[in-house]
Prior knowledge:
CATH topology of the domain at 45-124: Translation Initiation Factor IF3
Shape: elongated
Low-confidence stretches: none
Amino acid sequence: xxxxxxxxxxxxxDDEREAAAEGGRPAGSAPRPLGLARPAPLAFELxxxxxxxxxxxxADRLRAGAPVVIDFSDVDRDLAGRLTDFASGxxxxxxxxxxxxxxxxxxxxxxxxxxxxxxxSAVREPGFYNRS
Length: 132
């Protein structure tokens, strides 16, 4: 039994010597703490459509993982309806969500982005700084 243990001890000692020779952590030193992973900043895409051709851009941005805000303020009613229907089907197919963030704006979010109720209501309801 001691012969087997001695063989394992020699293997570990060899590994420690190799690590020290290669500039690795020397035996007996404390490990460094891991850094905290920071999530990538979330960038929204703002789209002000002029025609239905912008639907491809909306789909590409959402598929790439970026939330998209569609501003319908200068869009006729028919085009706004078609783009809303398109956006609804798009978020359903991608597992995302669609939320109205104003009378003339939609927020499309991919599946990995969650807008909780508090933030969504703060965007929808006019507050001190959101006066129209």
